[in-house]
Amino acid sequence: MSTAGFLKRLHQPAGVVASGRRVDGYLALEDYGALGDGRSVALSGADGSIDWWCVPNLDSPPLFDRLLDPEEGGRFCLTPVDPFEVERRYRPGSNVLETIFTTAQGRARLTESLNSGTAGRLPWGELARRVEGIDGTVVFAVEMRPGRRANGASPYRSKIGEHAVFHVGKVLGLLLHSDGFAGEQADDGVCGRLTVAQGQREVLALIVGEGEPLVVDPVATIDERIDLSDKEWRDWSDRVAYDGAHREAFIRSILALKLLLFSPSGAIAAAATTSLPEGIGGRKNYDYRYAWVRDAGYTIKAFLTAGARAEAKAAFTWLLKRLREHDARVCYTLGGALAPDLTVIDVPGYRRSGPVHVGNLATTQHQHGIYGDIFETASRFVACGNILDPSSAELLSHLADQCADAWRKKDAGIWELETPQHYTMSKISCWQALARAVELADQGQLPTTCRDRWSRERDRIAAWIEAHCWSERKQAFTFYAGSEALDASLALAVRFGFDGHDRLEKTLDAIDAELGAGPYHHRYSGVAREEGCFLACSFWMIEARALLGQRDRAEAALAALTAALDRGVGIMTEMADPASGAFLGNLPQGLSHLAHVMALHVLTQQDPC
Hints:
There is one protein chain. The protein is an alpha+beta fold. It folds into two domains: 15-236, Distorted Sandwich (Beta-galactosidase, Chain A, domain 5), CATH 2.70.98; 239-604, Glycosyltransferase, CATH 1.50.10. It is 33% helix and 24% strand. The protein has 14 helices and 31 strands. The chain has a 16-stranded antiparallel β-sheet that branches. A hairpin with a 4-residue loop joins strand 2 (32-36) and strand 3. Helix 4 (293-305) packs parallel to helix 6 and helix 8 packs antiparallel against helix 9. The longest helix has 20 residues, at 219-238. The chain is globular, with a radius of gyration of 24 Å. Mean pLDDT is 93; it is low at 1-13.
């Protein structure tokens, strides 16, 4: 089957069959779909259980956390009481999710949305769930149980007017429903049953806020907003500037990236979850609900590639403001502060793979890669016909000077490792930063005072890499100077325009040979025993092959990878187990989706700018 055939099958309207079966209380990560409203993201399982939703913001404590605590965690379940089969899909061009449950007695459709309005994101959280009978009769068990925030809050219920309102710390919420649902209310939640017959339609919705009044609209109005939200998503995706053979797949990944754009500030979260393990039973569990300079830069480029200039500009402005406030740091909170230190949360974790963390240590690291990421973003922004203001130009000039002084130092590298080294990819990122700075100066976008100095340092870096980071034995650029280990992120050197076509091609061959695992790739030498394969690396390899003129090889690799990832509704995690194909790591993972977008873009060779 052609690559286009694989991609079409992955996103065909008929839906994807999912198991919806829990093992020890856990669903497979590929059994989740993501809902979002520009402020938060909810994960809906294939058995009808919302297992993750941070309220009111993407980086707030979770209201529902069954994902990490299957027994005591909060959840909002709408699950058939009889054995069932499941088909799921996103509505085309939308982040509204549909699930069809089939039992021996009938079929019913569940449509889910984190609603928006005609003016965009609502100033409250509105999780809407519509159930429609298709044929026969289906009986659902309903359970809405707020989480206890790792026993830091004790949910309770109060009567306000005619409504039973639940409280979790400062979060206030209300479960609204149509007439067909009847349930029992208690301090720790609501339980009941909902029956739908052919042609019948019922709605359940949660309205939530933190430290703010609640707007209580009629259920019918909330129901209408599901279709309004769907239209808003479709109107946005219809404007995406991609008309290649892989449009459906491209749109799905761009929509996933859109979920991670935190609209109150313009920040781009790396993922919507914390502490989903990179290897079951391991301890590589990280909180990705922060904005990394690297991920933000790559995602801005992906938005520009898709013609989504408003999103790209918002994210770029946010990034420049953070650099002015805090200088060049690795990651920030979505509000713009430095990410906090690690705190361990006392819950079991996904598949008992603890610890569960809040915070991230990367904020205290130095990575040379941030220079390349910032300047590549600025260069792409300008290439689309945009203009840098004098304040931003001055800031970028200052960062170029920093890079020219700092490149000879060791750093933590793109993979944020504890042992500083002269990582090859870090040196290439410094070369990239100064190369883009020179180009921007030549275009009149940056002051030219230090232009010649940047040019000379750029050439010194290139010579240093050639002298210290090439292995004759491996016939490849190595992980760091003096080593024989390999690093799959070096595939990005092709995108960055680093010189040495022949050596880069040989490096890709060495990475395939040593780090490849079927259609997947491990991040670097020796890491396979600790974690799965990193999806972005495999897409970077596909992009690099295409840029080097190996189009047939790139298409074949994309077809194989797409087939391997054909396990869900199109939401990607950070990693996958190369033996079983099971998804691993946080989700939706922005780096996976943006690498997918860039690979498809290069294969189509379209440029909306």
